[in-house]
Known about the structure:
By secondary structure, this protein is of the alpha/beta class. It folds into two domains: 16-145, Up-down Bundle (Four Helix Bundle (Hemerythrin (Met), subunit A)); 147-354, Rossmann fold (3-Layer(aba) Sandwich), CATH 3.40.50.10470. The protein has eleven helices and 13 strands. It has helices at residues 43-51, 58-79, 85-97, 104-118, 123-154, 179-189, 205-216, 226-234, 260-270, 301-306, 351-354, and strands spanning 16-19, 22-26, 37-40, 161-164, 194-198, 222-224, 240-243, 247-248, 254-257, 273-277, 323-326, 333-336, 339-341. A hairpin with a 2-residue loop joins strand 12 and strand 13. Helix 2 runs antiparallel to helix 3 (85-97). It is globular. 5-S-methyl-1-O-phosphono-5-thio-D-ribulose is lined by residues 56-59, 166, 168, 172-173, 178, 205, 244-246, 256-257, 322.
Amino acid sequence: MILPDETPAPSVLVPLLWKEGRLLILDQRLLPGTEQHGEARDAEAVVRAIVQMQLRGAPLIGVAAAYGVALEARRLLDGLPLADFHDRMRQALTRLLSCRPTAINLMRALAPAGQWLEQKMDPRDFALRSEAWAHGLAQREAQACDVMGRLGADRLASGSRILTHCNTGRLATVGAGTALAVVREAVRRDPACQVTCTETRPWLQGARLTAYELSREGIPVDLVTESVAGNRLLDQAIDFFIVGADRISPDGRVANKVGTRMLAQLARTGGARTLVVAPTTTIDWEWKPGQSIPIERRGGEELWHATGMAEIPPGIHIDNPVFDLTPPALIDWIVTEKGVIEPARGECFDPGRFSSPEPDC
Ligand code: MRU
């Protein structure tokens, strides 16, 4: 999130922009061909943007949803009998919560609004608080990206050969990114580092977004299919496999873009180290041992469209889970803005160190 008084460098992609009570959303479906921001003025417009993948990436989804609450509160204050405020706001919150099931950042970003509704907070206070909360969250998430970038890069060696998956950069966050912030910092420290990214089937976040984001910033990148990435790992042509996360259990189980688990297994076989990079807002503190993590399944047309064909022929069943779960044993480090754990050595997130009460609520 770039606030109005900041001007980004021309190479920096800005996925969200808050301008005088409007949320401008970069439509990622049009990238890399067209950079176009659409405008959201209420929660429903934010819901549409998330569901249709105009914006995506766990931290970005969370921040956009928080702004969705702020927009809706403004709109309801302007045009409604105040007696209806709490009911209408509750409906908007339910819609926002249902947008995507795996990214816990969404639920975390909306939790304060749920509390304020339970307290029957005065609508004007609600509107002020929700806007302040969204700005604060955006700021904390942006700062977290910078810290993670440095902490992650500290783990890498000079001349590292890096593989990354999906898009975890400026287009997935409101800052420098999660895994991609580490990649950028590693290349800044040592331009001899080599970066490979997967195309990331079927939605092609790697090919359309990561490769574009890196090339705009002058960082050379090799774009490969997931199969080639697997072979590079087995051929010991990669030193570090670096990814983000959509939800992490306190014992280090990582839900991330489908393919992460397979590539982490191949990384282990080929001797590469696996780093997961995510802010603490991605940790699911409610998770209990034995519990599953919801994995989003999307329509089969996404697979079909990725092949360039317009329609699914009748009779073909397509299974399209878009995330998978990587076990702690395959993850060497999880890097957060509050420090690093080593899940493969049995280390878990200690709530005393990694969780803190949310400010402003
Ligand atoms: O389906 P997407 O594009 O929202 O999936 C995004 C990812 O899986 C990212 O790797 C994840 O959000 C973490 S990086 C910010």
